[in-house]
Write a structure and sequence with these properties.
Keywords: Oxidoreductase
CATH architecture of the largest domain: Alpha-Beta Complex
Strand order of the largest sheet: 3-8-10-9
InterPro entries: HMG_CoA_Rdtase, HMG_CoA_Rdtase_cat_sf, HMG_CoA_Rdtase_NAD(P)-bd_sf, HMG_CoA_Rdtase_sub-bd_dom_sf
Order of helices and strands: HHHEEHEEHHHEEHEEHHHEEHHHHHH
Structural class: alpha+beta
Protein name: 3-hydroxy-3-methylglutaryl-CoA reductase
Number of domains: 3
Number of helices: 17
CATH superfamily of the largest domain: 3-hydroxy-3-methylglutaryl-coenzyme A Reductase, Chain A, domain 2
Number of strands: 10
Largest sheet: 4 strands, antiparallel
Family: Belongs to the HMG-CoA reductase family.
Pfam families: HMG-CoA_red (PF00368)
CATH class of the largest domain: Alpha Beta
């Protein structure tokens, strides 16, 4: 049986047998324990309970020569199916390759009342060594781990504003609290020792631009992985490229194509306990700043009989800290991935985005997006119709045998299933 055809218990047992999960993690997933009241109170405010989302895995991922089952948290079954589908096609072409990855967080000390920027630049340059000392003293543990302040940039802004940008290596963490601590310490030093006259510190805080938390991943798809019964692989590749080029010229289409990338990116981000809002803010900043409208690009390579895709993403994430260390399921997700480095995790998450993008584009230029989408949505429609327990599977099967489905049809079929059961 294929992996997606197994029961939940069978999937967990297979992952244990393959060494992907340990027995403690398997027991946790099988028993589905709730978060304790103490943990809830510690990680949120005014807690009422839990809002549960499914934890799934996408398979067939080959990334930088390593095979992965990638954990995804999403209520949308087509996201998981598309990720596995796209990954399998890219694996046939050698898998995903990381072309570039960097992991530095920016903090800003925002200044106002700057009348002479050139003179301020001289004073900042003269204080460079002391700024490094202040930053190290503010968070000595990050220095001991090999991280800390790496670069200081004074940037002229509009009016009488300026920004002292601090580029920080947070090591395995995302580093929000680290960046804020260093920024506030440097701001206090500047206000007393460097700024003059009307110059004032307006604020000191991290930036969520993700400008140096970037990853670029590439994947190739052989033509034979794109072909359908009605279209050759070369024809499908050409259509995918045209659709991607249209998105690069049309904001309305680009927004939807980018959403397809983020379907996978967000699901993997959530599964590993990372800050979805930070990733969203960074992606927004990148799209606003760059000339290109899409996160992913596809080019045809007929001489190599393949389609080549690339995704370039800001991913302000971490491997430790915050909810990553607190949520049991997040720790299980990272264990499932083999405890990757933070840059390795960035490559994994970006690869999921590119896989989802490929699956969506191929569907759009071949069978259309709706057929597969509605087949996977049949279970949700069954639940909306009132199916319970084993009725859900029975009604889902019945719905998938219909050409067109809606809630009214689902309710009618459910009544028929119940009437047969009574007799």
């Amino acid at each position: 049986m294929k992996f997606y055809e197994l029961s939940r218990t069978e999937r967990i047992q297979q992952l244990v047998a393959q060494g992907q999960l340990d027995t403690d993690s398997a027991a946790y997933l099988l028993t589905k324990p709730a978060l304790t009241d103490d943990l809830l109170a510690a990680i949120t405010e005014n807690d009422l309970g839990q809002f549960v989302l499914p934890l799934a895995v996408a398979n067939h991922f080959l990334i930088d020569g390593q095979s992965y089952f990638v954990p995804l948290v999403t209520e949308e079954p087509s996201v998981v199916a598309a990720a596995s589908n796209g990954a399998q096609r890219i694996a046939a072409g050698g898998g995903f390759q990381t072309l570039q990855v960097q992991h530095q967080l920016q903090a800003q000390v925002i200044l106002t009342g700057v009348a002479d920027f050139a003179d301020l630049q001289i004073r900042v340059d003269q204080a460079a060594a002391q700024i490094q000392t202040v930053a190290a003293a503010a968070h000595p543990s990050i220095v001991r781990r090999g991280g800390g302040l790496r670069e200081v940039q004074l940037v002229r802004q509009k009016n009488d504003w300026a920004s002292l940008n601090l580029w920080i290596d947070p090591q395995a963490a995302f580093g929000a609290n680290l960046a804020n601590t260093i920024a506030e310490a440097v701001a206090a030093y500047l206000q007393v020792q460097v700024l003059q006259g009307s110059e004032q510190v307006l604020a000191a805080i991290l930036s969520n631009s993700g400008a140096r938390m970037q990853v670029r991943v590439q994947g190739r798809v052989p033509y034979n992985q794109l072909a359908t019964a009605a279209q050759s692989g070369a024809a499908v590749a050409a259509q995918i490229v045209k659709l991607n080029q249209f998105a690069q010229a049309d904001r309305d289409r680009a927004s939807t194509e980018n959403k397809g990338v983020l379907n996978g990116v967000f699901a993997a981000t959530l599964a590993t306990g990372n800050d979805l809002r930070a990733v969203s803010a960074a992606v927004t900043a990148q799209l606003q700043a760059q000339a290109q409208l899409t996160l992913a690009t596809w080019v045809d390579q007929p001489e190599q009989q393949c389609l080549q895709g690339q995704v370039n993403l800001p991913l302000p994430i971490g491997r430790v800290g915050g909810a990553i260390n607190s949520l049991p399921a997040a720790k299980i997700s990272l264990a499932l991935l083999g405890q990757p480095t933070v840059t390795g995790l960035m490559s994994i998450i970006a690869s999921v985005g590119l896989a989802n993008n490929l699956a969506a584009l191929r569907s759009l230029v071949t069978t259309g997006i709706q057929a597969g989408h509605m087949r996977l949505q049949a279970a949700n429609l069954a639940i909306q119709a009132g199916a319970q327990g084993k009725e859900i599977a029975a009604l889902t099967t019945a719905l998938n045998q219909q050409r067109q489905v809606d809630l009214a049809l689902a309710q009618t079929l459910l009544q028929q299933i119940r009437q047969k059961k009574e007799h």
